[in-house]
Amino acid sequence: METSINTSGTKNNSWTKLLNIADGQAEHKTVWFLFSLIFQGVLFLPIPAVLMYYYHASIIVLPITFGLYLGNIIVGMGGSGIRVVLGFQLLSVLINLSMLALYIL
Q1: Residue 20 CA to chain centroid, in angstroms?
Q2: Among 1, 55, 60, 69, which has the highest number of CB atoms less than 10 A from its own CB?
């Protein structure tokens, strides 16, 4: 039984477009890194205080939020590619928004 690989690109066309957009931002990697730090520092670092004070969240939200922030610093300054920088930023946003939704709703 022979395995065939689809190389026409029709199956993963949207994924390929997304990767091309990310690769096109490679020259702006420093800007994306700084945007990520400012965005998370302003919007997501205060989340543990709000969740713990108003919604009686557990203390675990603090190391998760701070760990994601430090992870962004490490990814941005560690020489990772633009795909990793943008991917980790998106992952951080999704995790923080999930924590907000979990405790507020």
Answers
A1: 18
A2: 69
